[in-house]
Design brief:
The protein is α/β, with parallel strands linked by helices. The chain has helices at about 15-30, 80-100, 120-130, 140-145, 155-170, 180-185, 240-250, 270-275, 295-300, 320-325, 340-350, 360-370, 380-390, 390-405, and strands spanning about 1-5, 35-40, 60, 65-70, 110-115, 135, 175, 195, 225-230, 255-260, 285, 305, 330-335, 350-355. The chain is about 35% helix and about 15% strand. Pfam families: Glyco_trans_4_4, Glycos_transf_1.
């Protein structure tokens, strides 16, 4: 196939959407496909352009993929308005690469959302050439902006909701990563036969079970008696990370207990300042770890925190959970009953569940885990990761769907139909 991928995040970003888009593109190229990517310079999750890159037009080759980078506005402090300006600046600057591509043919164009409006330039290519355009939704951005209060202007929310619905209804297909997100996409008027389930995966070559002895514990200065509670990933506003600091404050009485926060993001400076104000000596912050140390880093923890706000239920799916399952870690997960995350964890014994935004429930759950009362809760973690989250199987299946449908420009046969 000849494939064009359009997304604001891409390799070599280590976390989030950029990681998955980079691995997807590399997989296609390894199968012999001709792959081009229009993207931005790497900036996430630090919200700062990565060292070695410039915020300018640039072309490079990564794993056999032709990568075209367009400059964009990267705010130092992320607000709802600044995020809109950030995303729109990328759409406008990327037109430099889009214009010549309107005179070229592709077998498929994949737009990765968020931001949702990346589908508009691709839709023009569909009108000109009949090119199948797949909108791959990692986060339901507009719903999250509304439910989390990121955007409060009702007129703006209505405009964004109508624009998103109009765009999605004109896509050849829409893919997403969870059952709950699929249900919400159906509510936007998208036909079932246009929806593809394309979950996030685990790279078994990078993330696998590591013994306690071979983990990063000793490297970080922790002994056998130390107990580590780890949160690793994006330090953003959807997770309710202030609960970690409240939890650490409440559990000062537990000896040899450390809360380790690894990652970057818009909320990091605020969290560090609050930890200092509370004089939390049992909280340590570390930067993102290299990919080749990911398995050892995750294996160092006794408990992993997977936190989400109530309003984020079924709007985002915590990708960090896939890696925790792959190392066989015990995850303490906040999720409401009836959400995809809650039902999945409960059905497959993937971790210990507590109610979101309930610090009493979070504390009680953690104390029970540390007391050894929840050992059976995560017995299915490793098996589930091996059987259902394998990178090669998931990417093979998605590519099969594309290759079977790309020549049928006016029809789409989804496995969900």
């Amino acid at each position: 196939m000849k494939v064009l991928i359009y997304g604001i995040n891409f390799a070599p970003e280590l976390t989030g959407i950029g990681k998955y888009s980079g691995e997807m593109a590399a997989y296609f190229a390894a199968q012999g496909d001709e792959v081009e990517v229009i993207t931005a310079p790497p900036y996430y999750p630090h919200w700062k352009v990565k060292s070695g890159y410039v915020n300018a037009y640039r072309e490079e080759n990564i794993d056999g993929v032709r990568v075209l980078r367009s400059p964009l506005y990267v705010p130092e402090e992320v607000t709802g308005l600044r995020r809109i300006l950030h995303e729109m600046s990328f759409v406008l600057s990327s037109l430099r690469y889009w214009i010549p591509r309107y005179f070229r043919s592709y077998d498929a164009i994949i737009c990765v959302s968020p931001p949702f409006h990346l589908g508009f330039p691709a839709l023009l290519h569909q009108w000109l050439h009949g090119t199948p355009v797949i909108n791959h939704i990692q986060d339901l951005q507009v719903d999250a902006a509304r439910d989390l209060g990121i955007i409060r202007q009702n007129w703006l929310l209505r405009l964004l909701e109508r624009s998103e619905r109009w765009l999605l209804q004109r896509m050849t297909a829409v893919s997403t990563i969870s059952d709950g997100m699929q249900r919400k996409i159906l509510q936007k008027g998208i036909n079932t036969d246009k929806i593809i389930m394309f979950p996030n995966w685990v790279d078994g070559d990078l993330v696998y079970p590591v013994s306690r002895k071979d983990s990063a514990r000793e490297e970080w200065g922790f002994g056998d008696n130390d107990r580590l509670v780890l949160y690793a990933g994006n330090l953003g506003e959807k997770q309710g990370l202030e609960n970690i600091l409240q939890l650490a404050d409440r559990m000062r009485d537990v000896p040899d207990l450390t809360f380790l926060i690894i990652g970057e993001g818009g909320a990091k400076s605020r969290l560090m300042a609050e930890a200092e104000r509370l004089e939390l000596t049992n909280v340590i912050f570390k930067p993102l770890q290299p990919l080749d140390r990911l398995a050892a880093s995750l294996a160092a923890a006794d408990v992993h925190l997977v936190l989400q706000k109530k309003a984020a239920a079924d709007l985002v799916m915590p990708s960090k959970l896939t890696n925790i399952l792959a190392v066989g870690g015990h995850a303490l997960i906040t999720a409401e009953a009836g959400t995809t995350l809650h039902d999945l964890v409960k059905a497959h014994h993937l971790g210990t569940l507590v109610a979101p935004e309930d610090i009493d429930a979070l504390e009680q759950g953690l104390r029970k885990i540390l007391a050894g009362e929840c050992e059976t809760n995560y017995r299915g973690a490793r098996t589930f990761a091996a059987e259902q989250l394998d990178k090669r199987n998931i990417l093979f299946g998605f590519r099969q769907i594309l290759t079977q449908n790309t020549k049928q420009h006016n029809t789409w046969n989804s496995p969900l139909s």
